[in-house]
Write a structure and sequence with these properties.
Rossmann fold; four-stranded parallel β-sheet; 11 strands; 11 helices; seven-stranded mixed β-sheet; alpha/beta
């Protein structure tokens, strides 16, 4: 099959999604079976509006530089395609003679790609559709992990570790700190904060995950125990954590076009702020809360080297799959070992990925429900890469008393 290629980016960005874009563009431009390589601006919305750019006219150096460029260079979208828009999408594909369609995104994006591919096939239009996995949430089915997660996990671990040093040294002022990560229904990013620990007592002390409901009295008890033991408490929570009755800790009622709760939207109380208020009221402790929201999605300065490499290779592999005759699939990463880390690229049917979320498996969650297991740390450590380590004073006493912490 000969024709042109079209690539787009959708959903929230990651630090490495542009590396995947570079992989797709470079592989497609170097393939005899592909003519022009187009990019849709603003995802499917841009395609419907005719906002398409010829990526083959970009300087090769610019495409190469995408491999270390944050956010989504083509512009993103959270538009949910309705059935009435499918004829317009097909018309645009025919107009551009697109025979290879690539979308980089998460669960919702894969559902969109699956629907477009099926619609075109049903109407006799020959089109290869291949998805490139992307999400900092790491909740896509069919792949060991997603490009974007390793870098976001690294961002969270470094942030929680550094904030932990601050909280430890400021414990005479602020007794606790609550750090919130993104992740609507899965705790992969909150769990990654455990990578910050260098020794017992380091931040985080408590990790509250969407997979494990919590009770107010339990939170207060566990925080109080940490303060009594360490002099301070570091709490990490996923934005989508819930109380034991199933209600969200966050009070946000805003929904996106895919009916997902937007925990970062205005008009509601975040999970971190709710926990902060609960702890302050019940203990009298002064504390802080930190919500970084989308920063973990675009911090190229903290990107994982492995993540950047795998994201790029996933983009190239998407093209290889399409040219081999595959369609209706998403690139997947299959882990083959931890020590040393090894993985291979494969493909998984889009229907097995679309609109599904992959929670943390029970084996990665500690029995207490407020921490992770060693198995999770072994899983996540190679993805985030080596973290910075910092000095610690021994605090010897000059007067023969005190010292230490």
């Amino acid at each position: 099959m000969k024709g042109n290629a079209l690539v787009g980016q959708s959903g929230g960005p990651t630090s490495v999604i542009n590396a995947s874009l570079a992989g797709v563009v470079q592989a497609a431009l170097g393939s005899p079976g592909v003519g022009s390589v187009y990019g849709m601006r603003w995802g499917i919305e841009g395609l419907l509006a005719g906002d398409v750019t010829d990526l083959g006219r970009e300087e090769p150096g610019t495409i190469e530089a995408l491999r270390r460029t944050p956010s989504s260079a083509l512009g993103s979208s959270r538009h949910r395609v309705v059935d009435g828009e499918l004829p317009g999408i097909l018309a645009r594909l025919e107009e551009l003679d697109v025979r290879y369609l690539f979308l980089a995104g998460g669960n919702d994006t894969m559902e969109t790609l699956d629907r477009v591919g099926r619609y075109c096939r049903e109407r006799g239009y020959e089109l290869a559709t291949v998805g490139v996995p992307k999400t900092v949430d790491n909740d896509l089915f069919g792949t060991d992990h997603t490009p974007g997660y390793g870098s976001a996990a690294r961002y969270v671990a470094i942030s929680v570790g550094q904030a932990g040093r601050l909280a430890e040294d400021m414990q005479r002022v602020d007794r606790f700190v609550v750090h919130q990560t993104v992740g609507r229904s899965s705790g992969w990013l909150a769990a990654a904060s455990a990578l910050a620990r260098e020794r017992p007592g380091d931040a985080p002390h408590l990790i509250y995950l969407p997979e494990r409901p919590i009770r107010p009295e339990r939170v207060v008890r566990e925080v109080t125990e940490c303060v009594e033991r360490f002099g301070w408490a570091s709490i990490v929570c996923g934005e989508g954590i819930v109380w034991s009755d199933g209600s969200a800790v966050s009070s946000s009622k805003v929904r996106d076009r895919f009916a997902n709760t937007e925990f970062g939207a205005a008009g509601g109380t975040s999970a971190a702020f709710a926990l902060h208020g609960l702890i302050s009221r019940e203990t009298g402790y002064r504390g802080e809360f930190q919500i970084t929201e989308s920063l973990a999605m675009c911090a190229i300065d903290r990107a994982s080297a492995l993540d950047l490499d795998e994201a790029y290779r996933c983009g190239r592999h998407a093209v290889a799959l399409a040219l081999s005759g595959a369609s209706g699939v998403m690139v997947s990463i299959e882990r083959e070992g931890n020590a040393p880390y090894a993985a291979r690229l494969a493909g998984v049917p889009l229907g097995e990925v679309a609109l599904r979320a992959k929670p943390l498996p029970p084996g990665f969650i500690a029995e207490s429900g407020a921490d992770v297991t060693a198995a999770f740390v072994d899983y996540a450590r190679p993805l985030a890469g080596e973290l910075p380590r910092y000095a610690r004073l021994s605090h010897p006493s000059a007067l023969g008393k005190g010292g230490g912490r």
